[in-house]
Amino acid sequence: MKITCNRMELLTSITGVSRAVSGKSSIPSIEGILFECDDTKLKLTAYDLEIGIITYTAAEVYDTGSIVINARLLSDILRKSDGDTVTIESDDNLRVNIQSGITKYNFIGISALDFPELPTPTTDNSLTIPGQDIKDLIDKTIYAVSTSDQKPVHTGSKFILEDNVLTVVSVDGHRLAIAKKDGLESDLETSFIVPAKTLQELSKLIGDKEENIKVSTARRYAVFNLVGYTVITRLLEGDFIDYKKSLPRSYKTVVTLNAGSLIDAVDRTSLLISDRFKSPIRLEVEDQSIKVSCTTALGSVHDEIACESEGDPVTIGFNYRYILDALRNAGVSTVKLMLNEPTMPMTVVPEDGDDFLYLILPVRLRSND
User: Fold this and answer.
1) How does pLDDT run across 51-69, given as a tens digit for each residue?
2) Could you give the CA distance from residue 57 to residue 9 in angstroms, rounded to a whole number?
3) 255/368: higher pLDDT
4) Whole-prediction pTM
5) Among 30, 76, 256, 265, whose Cα sits 20 to 30 Å from the Cα of 122?
6) Strand, coil or helix: 231
7) CA–CA separation, 320 vs 353, rounded Å?
8) φ, ψ at 295 (rounded to 5°)
């Protein structure tokens, strides 16, 4: 194989597919990127056995062929070289030569035969949706995905498509995040669970680009077709929580407030909390205000913000990180807090509409909290 590419264009492509490169593995080939070129184009593939990313980039092809090159080494070479173009050449002995400007590198690559075969699922079900809508659904829910392997199915988000509405659900045992997009034009009704890593990398690939994305599913895989990239991911299997049964049917207290004001108050109050000095945040709703307080072995702190409240006064405790995660990912300036008893979950929804719903389990307060 011998090709010449624009250095920065190749670096951009390498950066994109590197999101599917394994960090450390006993299989050296999945720490690399598979280069495959025919007479007209260069195909780049990365696959860590869970997520695979494919892209094509422009290249002047002198000799066709294939080789696997370590992704970290290649990225460093391209980033630190100063030539406008880069020439990459490999031979039958897996010797790789890279030249950009006057700088030359020579090292051993990995045989393309050692690269694991990427799944090619037969996808019968497909949906086309604006990329920014998918990114918004991911960003509003990804924080609540479980990081524990106790229930692997909850280490991903569930996508549910029915009645022209796409709903994404994440849960980790302490909180539940739901976001949805309606008005889709699709007769498809399906559900599938995508690993969190895939969703995080998909969100980054979308970035701020305005583009439509085709989502296709098979029994064990999903394929996301973006402009310039194809993302193939395995799906998680198992019994996902029936989230509808977890939602309260009524509320005794409804609080409307500025999300930023509560974020700031909780942020200030949490300064006395650390791994050494642990304590829940106490919220007291009464007389059109929320008192935010915390007491640890280090000391105590009290704050207060204005709100509009309806219903019964209530005092309830929470892990401050869960409140901040929900409010920071809501993406709106005003939210409603829906409350019942101090031992029941708090629901966070937008002031208007139903684009998202967050459920946060409380922490039982002790007399000294």
Assistant:
1) 999 999 999 999 999 999 9
2) 8
3) 255
4) 0.92
5) 30
6) strand
7) 26
8) -130, 125
